[in-house]
Each structure stands twice: as C-alpha cells, then as structure tokens.
Write a structure and sequence with these properties.
single chain, two-stranded antiparallel ribbon, 4 strands, 63% helix, elongated
C-alpha cells in the first residue's frame, strides 16, 4: 500500500508539471493581430450587451476611442499575457473597475487617480 501511495503521489506530480508546461506554452504563444482585433471587438460587444451601466464613468465616444486606439496599437503578434494587460488598461476608465475573467482567475484592476 505504501508503494502504491508513493507511486500515486509521484505520478500526480509528473502530470501537474506537464500541465504547467502546456499552460505556459499556450500563454507564450503569439497571436496574429487579426485574431486579437476580433477578440477586442468581441469583448467590446459583450460589454455593451451585458454591462448594466457601461457609460456611467466614461462617455461612449471616449470608450469607442479607447478600443479603436487599442486596435490600432496592436499591429504585430503578441502573446496572451501582453494582450491581457493592454486590454485591461484600455477597458478601465476613471473610478470604474474592469472585471475580466482570465483562465479561471478573477482579477479586479482599478485605475488609480
């Protein structure tokens, strides 16, 4: 029984290391600007559809400008982590908070005054 327990622990450790390597490879993979622009459009459309009061802190023209400038700023392939940072900084405005789900982890970023 003891050998089986040791085997099971070492086997689960090996599997977890492989999954971490796979996850890191997915995050570090470069995405084309076209696919990132489609993701930006999808996020903005979801915000418009589901946010109860999207234009409370930022006007529609300002928010449109921020998302358009984000799309113009991305003109070369970048990885998921850099895209996430750019997306969060562009979608948060004033005292508003941007809540974006990322790989099962809930993070809240607040723009400092």
């Amino acid at each position: 029984m003891r050998k089986f327990t040791i085997f099971l622990i070492s086997f689960s450790f090996c599997i977890s290391c492989v999954s971490v390597k796979k996850h890191n490879a997915q995050i570090e993979a470069l995405h084309t600007p076209e696919s990132l622009h489609m993701d930006i459009d999808r996020v903005y459309n979801q915000l418009k559809k589901h946010h109860p009061n999207l234009y409370q802190y930022t006007s529609k023209t300002d928010l449109d400008f921020k998302f358009d400038s984000l799309k113009r700023a991305i003109n070369s392939p970048i990885n998921s982590r850099d895209f996430y940072k750019k997306l969060v900084t562009s979608s948060s405005a004033g005292k508003a908070r941007a809540r974006i789900f990322r790989v099962g982890i809930y993070r809240v970023y607040k723009k400092r005054a």
